[in-house]
Amino acid sequence: MRLLSIDSVKENMQIARNIYAADGNVLLGEGMALTRGYIERLKDLGISSVYIVDHLTGDIEVDELVTIQTRIDATKAVKETMNGIRKGLGLDGDKVCKSVDKLMDELVANRNIIYNLVDIRAMNDYNFGHSIAVCILSLLAGIFAGFGYRKLKELGVGAILHDIGKVFISEKILNKKDKLSPEEYQEIQKHTILGYEFLRKNNQISAVSAHVAWQHHEHFDGSGYPRGLKGNEIHEFARIVAVADVFDALSTDRIYRKRFFPHEVVEYIRDKGKELFDPDFTRILLERIAPFPIGATVLLNTGEKAVVMKVTKDMPSRPLVKVIIDKDGVINQQPVDLDLKKDLTKYIIEELKDEESVTGL
Ligand SMILES: [Fe+2]
Questions:
Q1: Cα(52)–Cα(30) distance, rounded to whole angstroms?
Q2: How many domains, the chain?
Q3: Residue 266 and residue 285: Cα distance in Å, rounded?
Q4: Are residues 250 and 333 in the same domain?
Q5: Report field, pTM of the whole predicted structure over 0.70
Q6: Same domain, 91 and 173
Q7: Could you give the angle at the alpha carbon of 109 between the alpha carbons of 103 and 111, nearest 5°?
Q8: What single string gives the DSSP state of each residue in 16-31?
């Protein structure tokens, strides 16, 4: 099984794992062959990568941080919540809290599993998938920061609703492909205040959860909005959600740009994020993320090409891989396992893009 970007897949390749729509229906089932029409549809739905059957690597088990059913339920809850608010029905806080509870339970139980980007990404359209991904990432940071049940719950609710204010912003501006005018940008920035004002009126949502909506675009160095708060002036939940938000946004295809690979996002956040994000929460979160997700095709420093088979929490950047192409570019018909944790002379340089990632398929 191999993980390919949607731009690299070709007709007749076979799907290795079900692909789900935001409503939980199976869009394409395991074993189905891709057609041009399917590929276009997946692109339209914003699905950025899919698992493809690959005889060189065989089947790979992907440990799930959160079960598919829980993700589907949470996605549905967010979708219904947002649509309800648009229709003037108000917010069903109970429904949202129940989804967060379920996500928390599973994340706590699966705390030894590393966040594998595709767990979440290959199933949703952007807005709803984004809320769930940000919630999962934020909860992961909270769990490993040692938060207790009550704090985790408030963090999770704030995270899942962080962008709720966007329901009050015109979709025309939100979905604009071209560069935003200064006025439009100002308009979008209002989602923070609008979200906060909306949430604080709801007595099922705690004040600190509402603050996440208000403060998640504040930067640690004071360069963010809406108030330009700095360091610890920003509530710790919002400092966590700020990193999770950027991590997920950069990892996803958007109308105006292509996604970045996880290792590129990790590097960006480590480097650029020094000023923007809380250093402690950033470190805690990045330690839980697989820079090279399971199924990714990667280039090693030896020139060999390999597929990531297993990622472990002690050294996420040194996974177990299967070498499928040797250093001379010859396909290994019987690929060999290589544990990068044991062979320290070898390391991954990058995840391969496009044409390069389908070699040997
Ligand atoms: Fe936002």
A1: 9
A2: 3
A3: 10
A4: no
A5: yes
A6: yes
A7: 95
A8: SS-EE-TTS-EEE-TT
Same-domain pairing of 22 and 161:
no
Domain annotation covers residue 247: yes
188 Cα to the center of ligand 1, angstroms: 9
| Nearest CA-CA partner of 208 in 261, 142, 118 | 142
Are 131 and 162 a contacting pair, CB within 8 Å? yes
Q: What is the pLDDT of residues 162-203, one digit of tens each?
A: 999 999 999 899 888 888 899 999 999 999 999 999 999 998
* 247 Cα–ligand 1 center, Å: 13
Q: How far is the CA of 163 from the centre of ligand 1 (A)?
A: 5
Between the CA of 66 and the centroid of ligand 1 the distance, in Å, is 24
Tally of CA atoms within 13 A in the half-sphere of 44 that contains its CB: 7
**Ligand 1 center to 334 CA (angstroms):** 47
Q: Using the mean position of ligand 1's atoms as its centre, give its distance from the Cα of residue 6 in Å.
A: 26
**Does the residue 61 lie in any domain?**
no
Helix (H) or strand (E) holding 276: helix 273-276
Residue type, 142: G
How close is the Cα of 161 to the center of ligand 1, in Å?
10
Q: What domain range is 219 assigned to? A: 68-286
Q: How far is the CA of 107 from the centre of ligand 1 (A)?
A: 24
* Claim to verify: residue 34 and residue 161 sit in the same structural domain: no
Measured distance CA(74)–CA(79) in Å, rounded: 9
Model confidence at 121: pLDDT above 70: no
Place of tokens 């590097």: 267
C-alpha closest to that of 137 among 30, 21, 216, 226: 216
Residue 210 CA to ligand 1 center (angstroms) comes to: 13
Contact between 156 and 139 under an 8 Å Cβ cutoff? The reply is yes
**Residue 351 and residue 289 in contact, taking contact as beta carbons nearer than 8 Å:** no
